[in-house]
Automatic annotation (TrEMBL):
It comes from Jonesia denitrificans (strain ATCC 14870 / DSM 20603 / BCRC 15368 / CIP 55.134 / JCM 11481 / NBRC 15587 / NCTC 10816 / Prevot 55134) (Listeria denitrificans). Belongs to the 6-phosphogluconate dehydrogenase family. One of its GO terms (molecular function) is phosphogluconate dehydrogenase (decarboxylating) activity. This is 6-phosphogluconate dehydrogenase, decarboxylating. SUPFAM superfamilies: 6-phosphogluconate dehydrogenase C-terminal domain-like, NAD(P)-binding Rossmann-fold domains. It catalyses: 6-phospho-D-gluconate + NADP(+) = D-ribulose 5-phosphate + CO2 + NADPH. The lineage of its organism: Bacteria, Bacillati, Actinomycetota, Actinomycetes, Micrococcales.
Length: 481
C-alpha cells in the first residue's frame, strides 16, 4: 500500500469505530483506511463489509502511508490510556498539518492536555464528541468537534458527509478550540440524564398515583410525542413501556431490576459544574437518583419508614395533563441549566461557543434530539447574549403557562410520598431564580458571624463586618486590613 489513497482513516475497530468507518465509506467521495491494534479485527471488518472498500493497514506506518495529505484520522478506541497510546503512535508517523481526531468519550480536560501536548509537533489535535451510540455512528451521529479552525477546514466537510441531518442541515459544527467539543458532548450527556429522570418521574406519577398500566402510559407518551415534548427519549419510552416480557407475560419494565447504572459522563457534568459554580441541579438530582437506586441494602433497611398518604385522582385526564406540563417546565429548566454550564465553561476556558448552533446540531443523531431544540436556537438567534435561557420570551411564556400544573404535580407527589427529585429541584431552581430576595442574606450574616467573611449592603457600596463578639457595631471591612 504505497500510494496514499484514503482521505480519512479510522483507528479502533470495535463497534463504534467500525460503524463510523462504514458510515464514512458509504458516502460519496470517501475512501477509508482502517487500523486496529489487533489487526485481525480490522481484516474481519473489511471482509464482512466488502462494499466499503476499506484499505486495511497492518501497521501504524502503513496506515499513515495510506492517507492522503493532510492525513486525517479518527481514533475510536477505549477512552483513557488506550487513547493516549494511539495518539503517541500516530504522532510518530504523522507530519505537521495532519489531523488526529479523538472521537471517543474523553474528559474535556484530557482533550485540552492532549491538544497542548500534540500542538508543538505541528499536528492538529481535535477532540470530537460523537453522540448517538452504535446506531448513530453507523447511520448519522451528532458530532461536536473542538480544535483549530484550520483543521476544521479539512475535517468539517468530511464530518458533514456522515453526520445526522436535521431539517436539511448536517448535525456538526465547529464548537471551539481544544476541549470545547468534548465539553459540549459532556453537557449533552448531563442533559440526557436529567431528561431521562424527568420522564421516569412522570411515568412513576402516572403509574402509582393515577393508576395507569404500563401500556396505557405508553399511549400517553405516544400522544405527548405529537406535541411540544416530541423527542427521541419520549418515543423510546413508549416502546419500552409497551414491551412485554416473554418469560413472564408482564410488562418488561416490571421485571427489570430498578437499579440504574451509569458510565460516568453525568458525574463529570456535575463535578465540572460544581467547579464552575453553575447550579445544574436537575442533572445532579438525576445522577443522585441513579446512585440512590443502586443502594439495595440502604433501600431494604429503609423500606418500613413511614410514607405519604393515599392520594386519589378525581380527573385522570386533568392529572395526566398536569404531569405533562410539569415535565415540560422541568425539561426547560434542565436545558437552561445545561446551557448555563456551556456559557460558564466557555468563559473559563476561552471558547467562543455559539449556543444556537449547539442546539441545532443536537436536533438529529443524538439521544436528546427533540423538536424543542429549535426553540433554543431561536432564543439565541434573537439574543446571542441571553443571560439565562429560562427567561427568553418563548420559555418564559411556556413556564408561565405550566407553573400551576407544575406546582400541583409536585404537591401531589409529596402527599403521595413519591420521590420526584428532578421535578422538585427544577421548580426550586425556578423559584430561586425569580425570587426578589433570597435567604442568602441570612447565610451571609451567619458566615460573617462565625468566620468574619464580611457582607455587602443593599443600601450602600462597600464591604462590611459586624463585631459579633464585641459591641456588635458595624465596621467597614476595608478598615480591618
Ligand atoms: P471500546 O470497547 O471502548 O474499545 C475497544 C477498542 O479500543 C478496540 O479497537 C481495541 O483494540 C482498542 N484498544 C484498547 N486498548 C488499546 C490500546 N492500549 N492501544 C490501542 N488500541 C486499544 O470500543 P467502543 O465501544 O467501540 O467505543 C470506542 C470509543 O467510543 C470509546 O471512547 C467510547 O467511550 C466511545 N463511545 C462509545 C459509544 C457506545 O455506544 N459504545 C458511544 C459514544 C462514544 P483491540 O481490538 O486491539 O483490543
Amino acid at each position: 500500500m504505497s500510494q496514499p489513497q484514503a482521505n480519512i482513516g479510522v483507528v479502533g475497530m470495535a463497534v463504534m469505530g467500525s460503524n463510523l468507518a462504514r458510515n464514512l465509506a458509504s458516502r460519496e467521495g470517501n475512501t477509508v483506511a482502517i487500523y486496529n491494534r489487533s489487526v485481525d479485527k480490522a481484516r474481519a471488518v473489511a471482509d464482512a463489509h466488502p462494499e466499503a472498500g476499506f484499505l486495511v493497514a497492518e501497521s501504524v506506518q502503513e496506515f499513515a502511508d495510506s492517507l492522503a495529505r493532510p492525513r486525517t484520522a479518527i481514533i475510536m478506541v477505549k477512552a483513557g490510556g488506550p487513547t493516549d497510546a494511539v495518539i503517541n503512535q500516530l504522532v510518530e508517523v504523522f507530519e505537521p498539518g495532519d489531523i488526529i481526531v479523538d472521537g471517543g468519550n474523553a474528559l474535556f480536560t484530557d482533550t485540552i492536555r492532549r491538544e497542548q501536548a500534540v500542538r508543538d509537533t505541528g499536528i492538529h489535535f481535535v477532540g470530537a464528541g460523537i453522540s448517538g451510540g452504535e446506531e448513530g455512528a453507523l447511520n448519522g451521529p451528532s458530532i461536536m468537534p473542538g480544535g483549530t479552525a484550520e483543521s476544521y477546514a479539512t475535517l468539517g466537510p468530511i464530518l458533514a458527509t456522515i453526520a445526522a441531518v436535521a431539517e436539511g442541515e448536517p448535525c456538526v459544527t465547529h464548537v471551539g478550540t481544544d476541549g470545547a467539543g468534548h465539553f459540549v458532548k459532556m453537557i449533552h450527556n448531563g442533559i440526557e440524564y436529567a431528561d431521562m429522570q424527568l420522564i421516569a418521574e412522570a411515568y412513576d406519577l402516572l403509574r402509582n398515583v393515577a393508576g395507569l398500566s404500563a401500556p396505557e402510559i405508553a399511549d400517553v407518551f405516544d400522544e405527548w410525542n405529537r406535541g411540544e415534548l416530541e423527542s427521541y427519549l419520549i418515543e423510546i419510552t413508549a416502546e419500552v413501556l409497551r414491551q412485554v416480557d416473554a418469560a413472564t407475560g408482564q410488562p418488561l419494565v416490571d421485571v427489570i431490576l430498578d437499579q440504574a447504572g451509569s458510565k460516568g459522563t453525568g458525574v463529570w457534568t456535575v463535578q465540572t459544574a460544581l467547579g464552575l459554580g453553575v447550579p445544574v441541579s436537575g442533572i445532579a438530582e438525576a445522577v443522585f437518583a441513579r446512585a440512590l437506586s443502586s443502594k439495595p441494602a440502604q433501600r431494604a433497611a429503609s423500606r418500613n419508614l413511614p410514607g405519604g398518604g393515599t392520594v386519589t385522582v378525581d380527573n385522570r385526564d386533568a392529572f395526566i395533563e398536569d404531569v405533562r406540563q410539569a415535565l415540560y417546565a422541568s425539561k426547560i429548566v434542565a436545558y437552561s441549566q445545561g446551557f448555563d454550564a456551556i456559557i460558564e465553561g466557555a468563559k473559563e476556558y476561552g471558547w467562543d461557543i455559539k449556543k444556537g448552533d449547539i442546539a441545532k446540531i443536537w436536533r438529529g443523531g443524538c439521544i436528546i434530539r427533540a423538536q424543542f431544540l429549535n426553540r433554543i436556537t431561536e432564543a439565541y438567534a434573537q439574543d446571542p447574549n441571553l443571560v439565562v435561557l429560562l427567561a427568553a420570551p418563548y420559555f418564559r411564556d411556556a413556564v408561565t403557562q405550566a407553573q400551576d400544573a407544575w406546582r400541583r404535580t409536585i404537591i401531589t407527589a409529596v402527599q403521595a410520598g413519591l420521590p420526584t427529585p428532578a421535578f422538585s429541584s427544577s421548580l426550586a431552581y425556578y423559584d430561586g431564580l425569580r425570587a426578589e430576595r433570597l435567604p442568602a442574606s441570612l447565610v451571609q450574616g451567619q458566615r460573617d458571624f462565625f468566620g468574619a467573611h464580611t457582607y455587602k449592603r443593599t443600601d450602600r457600596d462597600g464591604t462590611f463586618h459586624t463585631l459579633w463578639s464585641g459591641d456588635r457595631s458595624e465596621i467597614s471591612a476595608e478598615d480591618t486590613h
